[in-house]
């Protein structure tokens, strides 16, 4: 191994295989243009190329690969939702996550750690009992556990009955996990580029041309591209990009902040969340404590961190884990979440014939990455909406058929 690394380092030419295609001029026409090179955009491109043989695809990213919410989330994976539509959708995504590293021969560092959601009131316990029943009925491992079980599972958790909001019970979700967020985008992009897809970073979409109800071209800072169809997967900028195509979306974007401590000796494994305290945390394999919470209470297209949210998250985290008072903060960041009225995504067709929507993910986009790539690619390739994403169509807001997942948030928004 040392001699191999030395030979690699002293080689005058790059001896390895490039992960992604080198920067080239944009072609005049692509069969599919995907706006956004996060996990969703690259996942769609990967599935189009590998499973449907569609390789004349351009993935456009205004910054760098995975620079949006893919790089700005806390990498939590779960399927313990509330509605049958939501549980079914995220259950299939978790199944794909479990084999994702083998899928494209790239380690996404997935860790099965389980998720514990804490109840601080009788109302929360009733809600958790309901969720557990729905989850179990749909084949998802969730169960209501008591204080003793919680204390045995996480000895470091503050179980005092004198706490401001004492812990009364918990929802244990054995399928909860985490993964390396940037590795997901890199793995999908590598597999897509290997099959002929073009990745164009630093390529910002400035306008979308629509003629007779169909997209005909996309204008970028590097030139105009004619296209057969367009898929938008731009997370927090969903309403802005859709507006270019003349599509109004019922979405408001909010900052979502998180932070991480310096590494420490491992003390607990599960992901722990408290919707009541608006906070969640887990310790990574590197020893860092990741701490996050609900979205900021005001709409904003920005990814700046604030002292106010740092103090709020810190105070809530210390109520659960007082020992974190000794932890030193390493960094703080923010993403931009695209929230819908019913806390469920918007996937599928749009009012523009050849324009497909992958939007409204709020704080759940990362965990949906594999199933989104698979189903959206199927939609583009066949023109038929997969059954699993039909409930998430834009038309549900006009038919009054919303899918209310507000009660299934890990930290209330």
In short:
This protein is an alpha+beta fold and 413 residues long. The protein has helices spanning 2-10, 39-52, 84-97, 100-103, 122-137, 147-153, 181-194, 238-244, 307-320, 369-382, 396-399, and strands at 29-35, 57-60, 76-77, 111-112, 115-119, 142-145, 169-173, 177-178, 198-200, 205-211, 214-220, 223-232, 252-261, 271-274, 279-283, 289-293, 329-339, 346-348, 355-359.
Overview of the structural elements:
The protein has 413 residues and is α+β, with helices and mostly antiparallel strands. The protein folds into 2 domains: 183 residues, 3-Layer(bba) Sandwich (FAD/NAD(P)-binding domain), CATH 3.50.50; 151 residues, D-Amino Acid Oxidase, Chain A, domain 2 (2-Layer Sandwich), CATH 3.30.9.10. The protein is 28% helix and 24% strand. It has 11 helices and 19 strands. The strands form 3 sheets. Strands 1, 2, 9, 10, 11, 12, 18 and 19 form an 8-stranded mixed sheet that branches. A hairpin with a 2-residue loop joins strand 11 and strand 12. Helix 3 crosses helix 10. The longest helix is centred in the N-terminal third of the chain and has 16 residues. It is globular and about 65 Å long. The N and C termini lie far apart (49 Å). The mean pLDDT is 94.
Keywords for this structure?
19 strands; 8-stranded mixed β-sheet; 2 domains; FAD/NAD(P)-binding domain; D-Amino Acid Oxidase, Chain A, domain 2; alpha+beta; 413 residues
